[in-house]
Structures are given as C-alpha cells and as structure tokens.
Amino acid sequence: MSIVEALDASMPGVSPGIYDEKDFRAISEIAHAEAGIVLPKGKAMLVYSRISPLVRDSGCATFASYIIRIREDATERQKTICALTTNHTFFYREAHHFEHFASEVRPGFVDRLKRGGKVRLWSAGSSSGEETWSLLMTFLGPDRAEGLDIAKRDLRLLASDIATHALTKAREATYRAEDLKPVPDALRRNWTSVSGDDAKIAPELQQLARFRSLNLLGDWPMKGEFDVIFCRNVMIYFDNPTKERLVARFAEKLSPGGWLYIGHSERVTGPALDLLSTQGPTIYRKRSA
Ligand SMILES: C[S@@+](CC[C@H](N)C(=O)[O-])C[C@H]1O[C@@H](n2cnc3c(N)ncnc32)[C@H](O)[C@@H]1O
User: Fold this and answer.
1) How many distinct structural domains can be found in the chain?
2) Percent residues over pLDDT 90 in the chain
3) Beta-bridge partner residues of 285
4) CATH classification at residue 67
5) Which domain does 54 fall in, by range?
6) Minimal CA–CA distance to 205: which of 113, 144, 137?
7) Which of 197, 110, 190 is nearest to 150 (CA)?
C-alpha cells in the first residue's frame, strides 16, 4: 500500500492533493539534511499531523507549496524541524546513570571544586530539562549543606536542544510534582519546592544551568572542554554515519578522563572508540593520554 492509499484509508480528511508521498519524502530529506533526523515511511502520518498546523498557519494551501516556503525560509524550516522532534523525557530516566555518576564520578569532581577547580557538564539534547535537573540534583547531592557549598563553586551545566519549545519549558523549571516521583526522596526534598500540584526547581540549581538552542549537527560555539556529556535518546533518531561523526565530536570535546553517557539502546562505534573506553553499559570515559 502506498502512503497515499494509507492516508486515504486511515484518515479520510487527508486529500492526496494536499499531502502525498512526494511531500513526505521531501520533508524527510529536509529533516535529515538539517538535523540528522531519519523519518522512515511508517512516520508519514506523524509528519502529516505534526506539520499540517504549520501549513495552515503559513497560509499555504498544500504541503507542496509549504515545502517551497521552507526551502527558502530558514525560520520556517526551523519551526518544521522543531515540530518533527520527539521530546519525550522524564526525571531520573535510566537511573543507573545517575547512580553511577553519584558513586564513581561525583566524589572526584566535588574534591576538585573544593580545591578551587572547575567542572563543566553538558546535557546535549536536553529536551524540557528533566535530564538537566536530575543531573544537577545528583551533583549537589543528598547533604543540603554540602550541596549549597558546591553550588557556590565553579560548576556550570550547558543544556542544549534544537527544539526551542522544549527549552522554554526547561527554563521555566516548573513541573507537575508527580513528575518528580522517580527522583530519590532526599534529592527531591533538598532541590525542589512543592506548591499545590507544582514542583519548582531550587534557584541554586537554576543558576548553574544555561539553556541554549543548538543543532548538534552544526557548529558548536562552546570554546572549552566538558568533563561530562549526557547525550541520551537523541542519536536513536540518527543514521549510523551521523551517530559516528557525533560521538567522535563528543570524544574530542571531552576533557581527558571525561565521561560520556548515552541512551540505553545506543552504542559507540567508529573512530570515537580510539579515544573512549567502555566503563559500563552505555557509559564511556575519555582516555587520559
Ligand atoms: C527523546 S528526547 C531525549 C531527552 C533526554 N536526553 C532524555 O534522554 O530523556 C530527544 C531530544 O533530542 C533533540 N534533538 C533531536 N535532533 C537534534 C539535533 N540535531 N540537535 C539537537 N537536538 C536534537 C530533540 O529535540 C529532543 O528534545
């Protein structure tokens, strides 16, 4: 069955004159070229439902004319890419990463900060901030007095994503209190305040985080190295060559001995393996020399 037939069968309101297989292919090519996102044929309906409001708002009568628009208009193209991203995330996702960080990585960094050194973290593909705050809560830790002391030191976290709507939510730093349930009690008590159904991230955490719009496939304006990079459940949307190029860039951007955490279904392959050693499932460390 072609996509057009599938559209007709499953969504009677979609006319082949408005959206067809050629349009789906064109949008897939743009998403891949611009953001590395691979959209297999099975996503044809998802593309239709995510993009048709933009087609309508733009005043274009068909997807074909909207595609001409986005080829020429970078701002509209950015909106299309944002609409095609999947931003699903939650607090303390893949808890074993935070447990590993707390027991194996954090103590050395806390020492370094107390000796006057600096620590730089990057949540690459942070979506709406749940990963960012989970990492910072883990860093400041269960001892509130120690956490407040750490927060005054030279610790910074960059949280980046291509989806600006997700970053807006991240900056608001307010979630439903029930969303925080996966976070260990002591961390939740120390670093959030609950009011009614809402939980607000503590100001001490907020002042450590910078949220930036960044396409991981584009240039990275950050000058320094990172001690820890979390890039989880982002590369699943990319093809192999794109993944390999990206992890090689992450490996370059890590400080010697720095840590890379990736999503549970992802693996590092390719040239990055010359620079990284495996430390556990989906946890890698940059070799020191
Ligand atoms: C499923 S979320 C993962 C969020 C979080 N890291 C986690 O594991 O819960 C994937 C995020 O990657 C972002 N993303 C996809 N392609 C990107 C790209 N080329 N550059 C930057 N971010 C991208 C999406 O906008 C989305 O917010």
Assistant:
1) 2
2) 93
3) 259, 277
4) 1.10.155.10
5) 3-84
6) 137
7) 110
Q: Which atom of ligand 1 is closest in space to residue 127's alpha carbon?
A: 27
Ligand 1 contacts (CB < 6 A) are: 35-37, 85-89, 93, 125-127, 131, 161-163, 166, 215-217, 232-234, 237, 263
Residue nearest to atom 11 of ligand 1 (CA): 125
Question: What does DSSP assign to residue 21?
Answer: H
Task: Choose which residue among 30, 162, 222, 230 to substitute to test ligand 1 binding: the one with the highest number of ligand atoms within 8 A of its C-beta.
Answer: 162
What distance in angstroms lies between residue 63's CA and the mean position of ligand 1's atoms?
25
| Structural domain includes residue 90 | no
Among protein residues, the one whose CA lies closest to atom 13 of ligand 1: 125
Separation between Cα atoms, residue 171 and residue 134, nearest integer Å: 14
Catalytic sites, residue numbers: 50, 161
Judge if 34 and 104 occupy the same domain. Answer: no
Shared domain check, 197 and 77: no
174 and 259, same domain (yes or no): yes
Residue that finishes a domain, picked among 18, 49, 84: 84
Q: Is 233 annotated in some ligand binding site? A: yes
Which residue spans within 37-141 are E strands per DSSP? 118-124
> Which tens digit of pLDDT belongs to each residue from 216-264?
999 999 999 999 999 999 999 999 999 999 999 999 999 999 999 999 9
